[in-house]
Amino acid sequence: MSNAIKKESNLPNSKKQSLRKGVFWPSAIVVGGAALLGIINNQLLTKVAMDTFLFSLRTFGWLYQIISVVALIVVGIVTFSKIGNVRFGGENAKPKYSFFTWFAMALTGGIATGVVTYGVNEPIIYLGNIYGELSNTGVTPETTMAAIYSLGRCFYNWTFVPYAMYSFCGLVIAYMYFNKNRSLSISDSLVPLFGEKVTKGVWADLIDTLSLLAIALGLSSSLGAGLALVGSGFQTAYGISQGPVLWLILTLVIAGTFMASAIAGIDKGIKKLSDFNAKVYYILLIIVIISGPTLYIIRMTTAGMAFWLQNFWIWALDPIDIGGEALVMWWTLYDWAIWIAYAPLMGIFLAIISYGRTIRQFMVINWILPSVFSIIWFGVFGATAIYWQQNGIVDLISVINEGGAVSGLWAFLQNMPFGVVFVPVLMITLVLSFSTAADSMTRTIATLCTNNVSYDEEPPMAQKVFWGISIAAIAFFMVAYAGGAQGVDGVKYLAAAGGTTVLFIFVLQVISGIKMFFFDEIVK
């Protein structure tokens, strides 16, 4: 077996943990070097990330689209076939977490922070054609059709397709680890396709290193987006101008929070943060549904779903040429790039917390319910924001034009009942949400760099701290010195660079999963 994390009879490994040098050192040099480059020459770091962004999405947009659809189809078949009855760890395995706790960790450790960030902003950006998103669609901005289009496009970008990517990787890794007694690594998920040779020597190290670099860059991007979001909240709500000083303070707070949580471990850190975050999200949804234009929300959500389903295949297979770069490259393909960057290592985290569950239960928690949550969130917040815009209650289009792509959320919250309370509450919640996602991924990165870590053991504290500091440093420099038209261009470049490093590994992982579940013998 590979020298990654071993497992024996579903019990914690008693072997002494040690540094996995073939993964740690190459990754540390690249990530640490990027952080150092941000200090010495942030313009060069921005240029490298931007060039990678433009090249990867313009060249491989078609591949991103095709592999995402394939992953979606396979996940659907696995979920609703007899394969869904297979239990991770065998028929007698017992789960550790309740369904509600499990769902909270899966939701807030994934893309829920993005849903909260763009639940208001993205529909309004489409509605107003702020960055040219509707230019190639034939839809007139700020009309009822533009409103329906906006919600439909958000439903496509934030629901079943991206969660299928996460779920697929988690499914393959969990099945290989718990049911086929393989190592908890990306390279071992490719054994069905390439055999034992992929787990040995340079191949295993290369695959896991590229996956680690992708998540490190993707996590830096997400953290950077979080800095821009919370910073815009201070500017919109309290008139505190954004700048390097504010971003540095926020970086220290977020990084300190997620490193403290990572050091505490899953049960004392991620579990508690996730429970709190999820409850705040539920409360916000209920308040907006009750206080908002309820009938309008229901009607627009229904119409948006209809438009989404009607246009699904056109949107799913558009490499850029149909919708144009402003819509497809800067939104959908960027989303796919960052989620594919996250997917392999996010799969390890999802696998770790899923012992004792069936594949169908795994898919319900990690694919179906988060997608439904996103539909509800965008339907409620997006439709309310559109209603306010079209009825002159608050001009969110002007707010975004003046304050950047993530500023509309705060103007929206200020106009809610008890808005003076919800703005600081959501700021704190978002800091904790970004900390939760960073916590889960920092732990996973450290795990991948360590030999002999069982699924229910914690990797070395020093590694968690090292990766946390490096990722936070990159995020700060990209936000502070690589802004642009949307205010977060620099971190978008970085995310796409991460997705590019792992795109082909993800393609191989999908093919490996297809072979494993549809052509090889199923291990229960």
Features:
524 residues; Amino acid/polyamine transporter I; two-stranded antiparallel ribbon; 19 helices
Provide the gyration radius in Å: 22 Å
Strand/helix succession: EHHHHHHHHHHHHHHHHHEHH
Span of the ends, CA to CA: 21 Å
Please state the overall shape, judged from the principal axes of the Cα atoms: globular
The strand count comes to: 2
Q: Return the average pLDDT rounded to an integer.
A: 86
Into how many domains do the coordinates divide?
A: 1
Neighbour order of strands in the largest sheet? 1-2
Number of helices: 19
> What's the CATH architecture?
Up-down Bundle
Structural class: mainly alpha
Query: Main sheet, how many strands, which sense, barrel?
Result: 2 strands, antiparallel
The third-level CATH topology is Amino acid/polyamine transporter I
> Can you tell me the residue ranges where pLDDT is under 50 for at least 5 consecutive residues?
1-14
The fraction of residues in strands falls at under 5%
Considering DSSP H and I runs of 4 or more, what fraction of the residues is helical?
over 70%
In brief, what are we looking at here?
By secondary structure, the protein is mostly helical.
Structure description:
The chain is mainly alpha-helical. It has a single domain (18-518), classed as Amino acid/polyamine transporter I, CATH 1.20.1740. The chain has 19 helices and two strands. The protein has a two-stranded antiparallel ribbon. Helix 1 runs parallel beside helix 8 and helix 5 (144-158) runs parallel beside helix 6. It is globular and about 65 Å long. The two termini are 21 Å apart.
